[in-house]
UniProtKB/TrEMBL annotation:
UniProt KW keywords: DNA condensation, DNA-binding
UniProt record, GO biological process: chromosome condensation
Record protein name field: Integration host factor subunit beta
UniProt organism field: Desulforhopalus singaporensis
A Pfam cross-reference name: Bac_DNA_binding
rRNA-binding among keywords: no
Length: 79
């Protein structure tokens, strides 16, 4: 395959993944892992520098869970 063809394929795949995550759909890549969007509740925290209480609004975060086969491969690599 030519470099430009591979680049186009990767761009198409990443664009499709981004659109799915924006729509809050779960993405699974067999043998690698899954991506999902999670909501975090609003909370209060203290600024360590100023000591002032800050309000953090609710937000969405990206969550990745690696597949069992990837986890096993990483563990066996370190042993």
């Amino acid at each position: 395959m030519q470099k430009q063809d591979v680049s186009l394929a990767v761009d198409i795949m990443l664009d499709a993944m981004s659109k799915a995550l924006i729509e809050e759909r779960r993405i699974e890549l067999r043998g690698f892992g899954s991506f999902s969007v999670r909501s975090r509740k609003p909370r209060s925290t203290k600024n360590p520098r100023t000591g002032k209480i800050m309000e953090i609004p609710d937000r969405k975060t990206l969550h990745f869970t690696m597949s069992k086969s990837l986890k096993e491969a990483l563990i066996s690599e370190t042993e």
